[in-house]
Design brief:
Blueprint lengths: L1 H23 L5 H24 L7 H26 L8
Length: 94
Amino acid sequence: MIVVVTIAALAFIQNVAFTLTSRSRNRNNLTYHMVTAVFSNGIFFLTFRELILAEMSWVLFLPYIIGTVTGSLFGAQVAFRIERIIGARADADD
């Protein structure tokens, strides 16, 4: 049961990070993109390490999907707030 919760949590954080990185690459702030890319790639590595250690069991499929979808939705909200705080704008606005 611990591995199911761990995978769901890592998948959630992974997609928060991925969403931040996806949005940051289209913004006018390279520091924002660098920080989110390191975060995203680091959590991606940790997530897949855990999946491999758990032998990629099908039991983990649903927790992984639920974690990634909810992480994407939450990540978009986090990105909106960060962009507003640091003044990051879409590249087309320059």
